[in-house]
Amino acid sequence: MARQMPPALDIERLVTAAFEQLEDHGLEALSMRRLAARLNVQAPAIYWHIRDKAELLGLMASRIYAQAYRAVEAAPDWRTWLRQFGRALRRSFAAHRDGARLCALARPPAEADPAFHAQRIAAPLVALNLDRAQALSCQAAVISFALGWSTFEANGPMHSFLDQMLDFEGSFEAGLDALVKGFPDAPGPGAGPA
Fold it and tell me: Which member of 102, 118, 135, 173 has the greatest number of CB atoms within 10 A?
């Protein structure tokens, strides 16, 4: 009986296996050696595709953020888009064990072009009448809020403690709404209701 060869190793397979490792054992246990064992390859095979663990974490974080961006529906104005994005980001962080912490620790790829990424990230809000600087600033604030909230949410003891003091879910919504309402209006048409 012929032995079946495992699928070819590529970035997609590496990142998928890394998420499986993350779900099973958490961020502290995510290592290149364990990932190689999960993929049934020698560790050097991984390094043909990625430089190091930092690059792997960056690829994983990119996938988490991409899930959130894809979940945002067409919005009539930029404030509605930001609220949807904040909720989608929180869900995306929560969909992965240690997702928020992973994103807080991840670094951008070494060859990433900041200008290209800024244009791509700002595009949905620029289309809704914010200028690029406003779009990036607003998104950075919403990302920071969702990241911080999701970190508390993933911390079982802290989440339980906060649940005894406040409506955790309702407080996220109220905080997100207050944050988005506090942004200065966009110039001209399309500013949207506060």
Answer: 135
